[in-house]
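Sequence design from tokenized structure. All designs in this work follow the same two-part layout: the structure record, then the generated sequence. An example of the structure record is given first.
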């Protein structure tokens, strides 16, 4: 649990000790519910990170394809990016 809070709330050592102390005071059902909640938040964060990584790769691929002279329609087909995004990137490259 504290790993989640360290990642998202950035607890200092005193706050971390206080959190651990308070968690120990919870009844087992409450502690389990808290763990499930933090686990779901953690998983959501990982999914968002994966999506951001995939988007970054698509942008890099689109940029490379445009630099190689590929047409916008082909870049759209292989990256899944929107036409407006590709055209914006193309304008930036052509600068």
């Amino acid at each position: 649990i504290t790993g989640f809070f360290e990642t998202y709330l950035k607890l200092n050592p005193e706050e971390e000790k206080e959190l651990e102390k308070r968690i120990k005071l919870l009844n087992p059902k409450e502690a389990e519910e808290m763990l499930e909640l933090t686990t779901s938040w953690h998983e959501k964060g990982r999914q968002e990170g994966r999506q951001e990584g995939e988007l970054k790769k698509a942008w890099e691929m689109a940029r490379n394809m445009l630099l190689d002279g590929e047409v916008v329609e082909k870049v759209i087909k292989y990256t899944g990016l929107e036409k407006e995004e590709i055209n914006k990137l193309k304008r930036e490259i052509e600068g």
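The CA atoms of residues 66 and 90 lie 7 Å apart. We note this feature because it recurs in several other targets discussed in the main text.
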